[in-house]
């Protein structure tokens, strides 16, 4: 049999055997009829289970997978094979057999006993144990029977750590589990079997006061009605008669309302405060095919989209009429973008292989970045015009084994049995990074010893860092020891898991007072031996949005006004020396004017090219150009007019490395790191990890640098003089400490905004941040005067030095914070920006982006040359001006696992829809709300790890949540869905083991439920295929 379908220029050709089983799917061009790739299926005719899958590209085999089964149809082995090398990654499963039952090893045949992963260097296995018999109390009181024969009892990972299932209800729902740390979590269900409460037990068994209890209420339809956090915060959800989400309400009465069209598309979103006042709005128009046609701002400024016959968005036109054209290849993959088709014509081309891996990017300058992969889809070679050739190898489980940069430096990676990175070895062994898990550190006090499954120690070239956790998995103590000096940072949390108190290394305590929504409304500071000082109070917030204002401890009020798109309108402190600025935007959302707060008269005008790159900073009254910039199509700055001088920027034809500015030359190493500016005037040395370790001027060393395994610069030293630096777990700079470990300056944060500064150990100052979170004013609260000012109206890329003596008292106040994530370093002349170093004079980084083109088409340019609208706190990727998501604080992750992400997922996906132009990316709610590993738990390759984790998560979600469309034949449908569920189980188990070490109860419950679904599906097969059984 043969079926052919077309979607625009895309052709699908399906071939079936005489039994109606799909054996081949060919994909190609409907225009030429050429077959570009074919998926071939080998299926067992008796069971309908897949035996082999191959993918060919124009006749060449590029991928192969194989499966084997036992007589019950359960998967025994699954293998992924590299057709080129012949290497195979095989996962093997063992099940309970009749002989095992007879021996008392397991209760019934068919239960999974173990899964053995592909690694050969270690025992790569997970074992499953079951209750051999019913709970003895079942016969006496069946209604409270804790478990039955065959219920899952324990899952034990490769390191021998287990998660234990203590009790079940009569429907087979887990009622109580105990993790490897000994923490017990209880689950309650309503009469319909829906999860209604999750209780993580505290230390007091006689009371629930120290338990973390999350409650879930439902509408009669089964949709979530309200989720209540352990601290009483709640979020409620309302639906229309068609069971579509229409309203989200928080515990303060703030709302997000969705207006839906007849097919359920959100054509309007309104965010209101508790009084019903509109605070944010947007609208959308969809075409007759349900595709987003127009999205408009509160003022009605539109962004229009067009589509090709295959449904790809091939045209985007912004509110200024700037058009972007997208082209797609015959397999519907993006092949070309042309930005500003009537002007700049910035053309970028993309090529892919048969596995849809990106193989080449040609940037607007015509330079190619190439990617090569093995048969497993692992990147093995990257060739970049900026960083040269980087090569990668992998172990048998797909973990990166080595990485060799263009300088010839090879980094080797080691992993434990759970595939957690344990060591990164560099050619310079003193820079090696080791990661220790599960081991309780001697610095951890009683109640801080719940470290199993978590990073407990990190030792590297910069420091030894030890971590301690409470029973709920919160990090409560971090001890960073560098060069023998220990800095201790302590965290304390509310019953809802929110930060309540931080204790800095000098014993200063910063406390957070929160309202019923969990938002910080007051910050207090208590120095060691001193009295509590109010840093700020009376903080208020826009609904589901940013802070609206707060009052500093001396009565200064900082007001932050936003428009109906949640773009900043003004930031105003009316007292002398305070930050006072207004903002204006063009229809496309570019920030075009800076004004006095509350006054539309422009003081500074900002100009942009069609690609949103800053081209001019002008006097608002006269229009006189103050600073001006030009760029090539890729975003390289070509000229800069600063004051009366125009500087010319020179680049080689073969890269984007800046070779000279106004005749001052720059040199680079093979990996694209800047090594010199102006010959010996400024020189930089890099270690074998690729980080800057020394700065020199005129040949003399001005500073040495060391970094930890998180990429943080934790030590600067020259001779015997040291500065030690500490960051929090979000990467915020917390403080600098001198050679003796005594605090020099310490920052205090309100979420991502710096609001306070401690100097000389106990002297408190106020920081007034701008719309991006950059500090602009520092206030001495006692004298109530500004002692530091970094004008927002200065050079836009940060090249204007701050005024360190605005009060004119002759005492310079030195404060090095700049753009978010940056701190000025006088020794190097650069701003240290976490993973990189930023040169404000050129608006570029001194190093190419460590995440490559994932951070932007120009790997050196700062935030796409839009520094007034975007930030880059990590030095890796530009982040747009903070646009609050119309979502809510995440509840316990198991809520989403239990609800399946369906009931509330639409509400949170609305946030993505808002940001992405109306098309939800298919991410389920779990992906949005499940707590991500903190930076402290990330390896140096955390970015690639997170990307891999997200990819694997989406893959198993795709399989597990995509039922096979009915064919009309119940037997075939039952078999197909059984195969899907088995594949789902394999992917879930692999994901849980790799990323959570089988220690996350949410995944364990999902796995258990999938097994039960398989048993039910096997019953369907017996019913509908009885003639074949």
Automatic annotation (TrEMBL):
Residue ranges of the TM segments: none
Stored NCBIfam families: Rhs_assc_core (TIGR03696), YD_repeat_2x (TIGR01643)
Domain Teneurin-like YD-shell: 265-439, 598-849
Coiled coil region boundaries: none
Top-level division of the source organism's lineage: Bacteria
Record's keyword annotation contains Disulfide bond: no
Keywords attached to this entry: Repeat
Keyword Repeat appears in the UniProt entry: yes
Organism: Xanthomonas campestris pv. glycines
Pfam families, sorted: RHS_repeat, TEN_YD-shell
Protein name: Type IV secretion protein Rhs
